[in-house]
């Protein structure tokens, strides 16, 4: 019995740490994207290039693994097409969110997602929808909203940016796609493995963006400078490959709702980087919001660990 409790506690701790690591890496998305705007990169092209390069790297890895590319029809349709559509939506919407609402605002809007995940995980995955889980998700969402209110708006790099309204819409659409990807990962990663799921999703997203963006009059132009390609490369390694593998490792060990909650550390990391690197400020209200996010994540881990120990 003691061994069961220890194993359960270790599993939950590992799950939270993996999700926190993923959120920390995702927190670099805003500052790196802001640097890309300053280098002249188009909003619609950044997401395309980072997932297309990630697809090439993962495909090269798959060539060294026998049977890696064998996938059944549900995997192709649900993960490749459905997951690819979610990735494509996220890659464009989040860039507009960053440019219009600022790094802190976009990251905070993104983390209305834990509430969505907590509600949908019950009918879709059979996870418990407890009052405590929902309350923690609402606290985190409220903290995110306060961060938006207390943060600077706009990319702050002297380039033409979308309006705040477009930025907020982009951030909310990114939240919906992120929530959908979290729920999909909880179902698909145990069936197909992290590397296959990630390849299917970003390959599907690359194909869809490669079709939709030119039709919409925004072909994905490459970054105009060597520095721009460097930023893209860091985005690929940190936010596409590294963060997703950590997130998938987390979602293997704990439910989708606490995984999404733990990854909410992203707006904290993104905001602090924006404060140090760019002319973006945070008022007392914004700091209160970040404190609520951190407190909600910490409370989530403690409560889930206690529940897990009681079940063991």
Describe this structure in words.
Helices cover 81% and strands 0% of the residues. It has 312 residues and is mostly helical. The protein has one domain. The chain is globular and about 45 Å long. The termini are close together. 54% of the residues are buried.
List keywords for this structure.
single chain, 312 residues, mainly alpha
Question: Any chance you could write out the topology, listing elements then pairs?
Answer:
Layout: H1 2-26, H2 29-38, H3 43-62, H4 73-110, H5 113-125, H6 131-150, H7 164-192, H8 194-215, H9 226-253, H10 256-262, H11 266-277, H12 284-311
Helix pairs in contact: 1-9, 1-10, 1-11, 1-12, 2-4, 2-9, 3-4, 3-8, 3-9, 4-6, 4-7, 4-8, 4-11, 5-6, 5-7, 5-10, 6-12, 7-8
* Mass-distribution shape: globular
Give the topology string: H per helix, E per strand: HHHHHHHHHHHH
- Average predicted local confidence, pLDDT: 81
Instruction: Give the beta-strand count.
Output: 0
Strand content: under 5%
Find the structural class using helix and strand composition: mainly alpha
| Count of domains | 1
**Major sheet:** none
What is the CA-CA span between the terminal residues? Answer: 7 Å
Annotation field: number of helices: 12
Helix content: over 70%
Low-confidence stretches: 153-160
CA radius of gyration is 19 Å
């Amino acid at each position: 019995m003691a061994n069961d409790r220890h194993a359960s506690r270790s599993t939950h701790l590992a799950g939270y740490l993996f999700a926190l690591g993923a959120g920390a890496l995702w927190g670099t998305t805003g500052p790196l994207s802001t640097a890309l705007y300053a280098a002249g990169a188009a909003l619609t092209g950044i997401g395309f290039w980072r997932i297309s390069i990630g697809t090439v790297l993962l495909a090269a890895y798959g060539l060294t693994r026998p049977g890696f590319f064998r996938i059944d029809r549900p995997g192709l349709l649900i993960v490749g097409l459905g997951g690819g559509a979610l990735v494509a939506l996220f890659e464009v919407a989040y860039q507009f969110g960053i440019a219009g609402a600022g790094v802190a605002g976009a990251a905070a809007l993104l983390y209305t997602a834990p509430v969505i995940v907590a509600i949908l995980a019950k009918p879709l995955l059979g996870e418990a929808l407890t009052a405590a889980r929902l309350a923690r998700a609402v606290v985190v969402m409220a903290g995110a909203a306060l961060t938006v209110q207390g943060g600077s708006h706009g990319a702050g790099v002297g380039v033409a940016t979308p309006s705040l309204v477009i930025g907020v819409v982009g951030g909310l659409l990114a939240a919906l796609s992120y929530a959908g990807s979290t729920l999909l990962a909880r179902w698909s990663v145990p069936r197909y493995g992290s590397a296959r799921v990630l390849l299917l999703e970003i390959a599907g997203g690359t194909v869809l963006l490669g079709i939709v963006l030119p039709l919409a009059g925004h072909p994905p132009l490459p970054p105009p400078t060597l520095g721009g390609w460097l930023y893209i490369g860091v985005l690929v390694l940190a936010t596409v490959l590294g963060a997703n593998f950590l997130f998938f490792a987390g979602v293997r060990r704990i439910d989708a709702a606490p995984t999404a909650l733990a990854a909410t550390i992203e707006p904290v990391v993104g905001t602090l980087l924006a404060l140090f690197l760019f002319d973006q400020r945070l008022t007392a209200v914004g700091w209160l919001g970040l404190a609520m996010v951190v407190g909600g994540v910490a409370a989530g881990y403690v409560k889930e660990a206690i529940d897990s120990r009681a079940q063991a």
